[in-house]
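Please produce the structure of this protein holding pyridoxal-5'-phosphate.
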Amino acid sequence: MTRYQYLADLLAQRIEQGLYQAGERLPSVRQLSCEHGVSISTVQQAYYLLEERQLIIPQPRSGYFVAPQKATPPVPAMTRPAQRPVEITQWDAVSQLLDLRQEKDTLLLGNGSPDLSQPTLKPLWKAISRIAQQQDEQMLGYDVLHGRPELREQIARLMIDSGCQLTTDEVLVTTGCHEALMIAIRAVCQPGDIVAVESPSFYGIMQTLRGFGIKVIEIPTDSSTGISLEALELAFEQWPVKAVMVVPNCNNPLGFIMPEERKRALLRLVQRFDAAIIEDDVYGELTFDYPRPITIKSLDHDGRVVLCSSFSKTLAPGLRLGWIVPGRYFDRAVHMKYMATGSTTTLTQLAVADFIRQGHYQPHLRRMRNFYQRNLKILTCLVRKHFPCDICVTRPQGSFMLWVELPETVDTHQLEQQMRKEKIQIAVGSLFSASGKYRNCLRLSYSLPCSEKTERALAFLGAEVERAMKMDYHNIEPLAITD
Ligand SMILES: Cc1ncc(COP(=O)(O)O)c(C=O)c1O
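Below is the modeled complex.
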């Protein structure tokens, strides 16, 4: 990021936080240049950028003023899915989204990958090459089924922050969180079982359930507090629900952190109906506020919570390194791990264990939390600027996903076709529902800083949304005049 972009982001953040109010005069170019130790032209470029984003207005011979702001859109209301067991659909759409990830020149607005260009990842590259250069034959052999003890020890230590007191022996290393989820589902459920999920819910969870012939009940979910416990209780009373799968910390796609008392109440409810919880904590360390929130696993005294996580979002998905803490399902989980992949790649396990042991992990996390929080502020400003007023947006408390609810009449599948022609990928809302709901919603990613290209893409997307709304208006049949 250049100096002027950095300065522009900083000023945008201050405007967003209300430190500079609409109509207020901003500091002069000279003042800012002294304050930040940058040249006059850097400040001027930063101001031009903010002017382009319509956050500030120049007044000849008076300086720059904060532009009037559109109100921040409200948060989406509690979702209302059909609460009965359904077969999971949407695989073709998920597979298309994943294919687009590989297309060069496509701008990935709907991607779930973290930023991989940060300098705090350099020690990880060094660890990988140092270990590879040792040419130790162990690296090319099979690893132990449970994973390298060095890494399991580091994972158990990291989990102390989430309230979990674990021994190394309780942790199994997996090939990403995907494998952890797959092992968890197989260890807890049988084909034909029913599992309750948040609605909307990460499509990877649902497609894994589909692969094992499991039906889901989509439970209403609040974009600030998570799964509705009242609706879940009703589902337990009506159906033999075997497990509940949740992403309670920095939920994908809604971004909420479930409050601690609700985590406790969820566990009590699940205990009452003697079911299991599969908890996905893959974003738990990317909360904007520190210390990070606790996991439900940390409250679990009878081993019914299976915790799944990975380094895919905090470090890099290409490492394919995750873990599972299977509780009372440990023996079955070990068998499922053997069935799935047998063992995990040794080299990356040792490199990550070394990276954490040398103290590089926490500074990297600190940097990423600030980085994503800043990106979110800019993205929210841009959505406010380019999208029509009658939308709802979430207030993510961490990670890098924003959920946008458009008017009911807008079909994001049609928008997606338009965007694809422009080489822009978006994640349509129906991917996050077993039954294809949320066709009027989108998930936008802010893992990468907003470039000019991103802003152009958002402006195009916003204009398409507006067009779709007008088209629908014109499609309405004129009312028949009757006597
Ligand atoms: C909630 C959630 N769980 C699991 C995964 C998969 O993680 P991994 O790449 O470690 O398999 C993702 C990736 O997008 C995710 O968002």
